[in-house]
Amino acid sequence: MSEPSVVVLTGAGISAESGLPTFRDKDGLWEGQRVEDVACPEAFARDPERVQRFYNLRRAALDTVEPNAAHQALARLQQAWPGRVTLITQNVDDLHERAGSTEVIHMHGELRKALCTHCGNRMIWLDDLHGSTLCPACGRRRGLRPDIVWFGEIPYHMERIDEAVGAAGIFTAIGTSGLVYPASGLVHLAKSAGARTLEINNTQTQVSGCFDRHLIGPATVQVPRWVEELIG
Ligand code: APR
To answer: Measured in angstroms, how far is the CA atom of residue 55 from the centroid of ligand 1?
Structure first.
């Protein structure tokens, strides 16, 4: 029999020990900032510079952090597991890629990419963005925005995600509060496909009851432990 397909869903908790704040923990990004002011299309229409400032700071913070043992363990799993491993992340950082993961599905977009609302082009973007920044593709100003899925927008790659989760033998959610749909619903899809479900988090969450098994503790400890269990 072939090895079961593994699907991993990660959230902000996996990058916390690298030094990136989560959203809903104490001192999280949504503690000092209202979602409505920085993370929805209406906020960008109302005050684009404020939104750009928020994401410019977060993009710049990526230069100061490194992947941790949890990101590295998942990259090892992708290399060593004889079956399929699909890594889906809600994170907009690039720590999975920097740890060596080659295929990462960024359902909420990426900080290091910009999207032009005039011409629809997406491009790698490492610097700050401002209203006056010219789009290198169409040459127009006031169109570039962070390539981030905001509240009220549709997450990326949903077809691919649903297909992978619907075929999962093992589904593991790591460092996510499970409060944001549709990511929060994937565990149900996995269960209906017959997958064994595991939650790795440093605490119980409001959705812990949906999972068959739990590993409670810091991602840098629990993820390498789980990967060792799988690949030995
Ligand atoms: N190890 C394991 N889990 C951790 C750690 C850690 N070191 N630190 C925090 N956590 C857990 C918290 O207990 C919490 O359940 O990570 C989770 C982080 O939850 P959120 O801050 O809600 O982040 P996330 O689930 O990724 O948010 C989903 O919400 O605002 C949006 O678009 C944003 O992608 C984000 C989405």
So the answer is: 18
CA of 148 to the centre of ligand 1 (A): 17
* Catalytic positions: 108
Residues 130 and 223 in one domain: no
Mutation test residue for ligand 1: of 96, 186, 201, 220, the one with most atoms within 8 Å of CB: 201
Place 31 in a pLDDT band, splitting at 50, 70 and 90: confident
Task: Decide if 89 is inside a domain.
Answer: yes
Residue 1 maps to a domain: no
What is the residue-wise DSSP string for 163-187?
A: HHHHT-SEEEEES--S-STTGGGHH
Give me the domain span that covers residue 220. 6-20+66-108+155-231
pLDDT reported for residue 4 = 95
Cα distance between residue 29 and residue 217, in whole Å: 21
Regarding the beta carbon of 190 and ligand 1, being less than 6 Å apart is answered no
Are 226 and 140 part of one and the same domain? no
The pTM assigned to this predicted structure is: 0.97
- For the chain, how many structural domains are there in total? 2
- Name which residue sits closest to atom 26 of ligand 1, judged by CA: 11
Cis bond before residue 182 (omega within 30° of 0): yes
